[in-house]
UniProtKB/TrEMBL annotation:
Gene3D superfamilies: NAD(P)-binding Rossmann-like Domain. This is SDR family oxidoreductase. Belongs to the short-chain dehydrogenases/reductases (SDR) family. GO terms for molecular function: oxidoreductase activity, acting on the CH-OH group of donors, NAD or NADP as acceptor. InterPro entries: NAD(P)-bd_dom_sf (IPR036291), SDR_fam (IPR002347). Keywords: Oxidoreductase. It comes from the Bacteria.
């Protein structure tokens, strides 16, 4: 088993939970490959943290093949943290955009699948591998307007649950992190097409939604348990949120 410095690949690293995870793993002494589409943000993060930046889109086969080649050439890899994803729209099932649903499946489901497939041999080869899948409480239950995001996160969750069965006995943990309400700079803004008022309304009157750092801390905690301890699923919500649909607001 490889016992050198631990090394992680984090997708969705240009902002929010992905960027926070890069920072927290670097602070804990991990080597990190930070992956995202936006080169400028990634370069800034790399300069601040010492992470290695790889510009890649998880929805593009060639990008992921190039990412895997760079990662493997750089040495052993111990963790893949699949953060790239997101929501588009808050429409009902009846009125939701098929294109939005397709885009959410592309990044949340097929993006996670693609990167996981590409790095699994290398994760297994170290004898101490982890696959983290950042789903959502939208992977566990639904809510009106959840639509394609709920469907995509349910599907993404089943990558983790199925993979864990398929890898039993192998030195690779599969860890699902399912956050509820997290206030990041972009999640709701992206969801609602840049409509800041609508994005702000998601968090209106809520006493302390989770932060990206809260979730990154949970991710880092799961990764730093002794390797025989597999946190199958970690559900994390702010205290003010009891379920997908019950939120205390001032
Ligand atoms: C985000 C949680 O409630 O917006 O993954 O679906 S929610």
């Amino acid at each position: 088993m490889d016992t050198g410095t631990l090394r992680a690949v984090v997708t969705g690293a240009s902002s929010g939970i992905g960027a926070a995870t890069v920072r927290q793993l670097r602070a804990r002494g991990w080597d990190v490959v930070a992956v995202a589409r936006r080169a400028d943000r990634l370069a800034e993060l790399a300069a601040q943290t010492g992470a290695v930046a790889v510009v890649a889109d998880v929805t593009v086969d060639d990008d992921v093949a190039r990412l895997a080649a760079v990662v493997v050439a750089g040495g052993p890899v111990h963790a893949l943290v699949n953060v790239a994803g997101g929501a588009l729209g808050g429409a009902s099932v009846e009125t939701g955009s098929v294109d939005d649903w397709r885009a959410m499946f592309e990044v949340n489901v097929l993006g996670t699948l693609r990167v996981t497939q590409a790095l699994l041999p290398a994760l297994r080869a170290t004898g101490r591998g982890d696959v983290v899948v950042l789903t959502s409480t939208a992977a566990l239950d639904t809510y009106p307007g959840g639509g394609g995001y709920v469907a995509a996160k349910h599907a993404e969750r089943q990558i983790a649950t199925t993979l864990r069965l398929e890898l039993v006995g192998q030195p690779v943990r599969v860890i699902e992190i399912a956050p509820g309400m997290v206030r990041t700079e972009e999640f709701s803004l992206n969801r609602f097409g840049g409509d800041a008022a609508r994005a702000d309304a998601v968090y209106a009157g809520v006493d302390a939604p989770l932060t990206a750092d809260d979730v990154a801390d949970a991710i880092a905690w799961t990764l730093t348990r002794p390797h025989h301890v597999n946190i199958d699923q970690l559900v994390i919500r702010p205290r003010a949120q009891a379920s997908n649909t019950l939120v205390a607001r001032a």
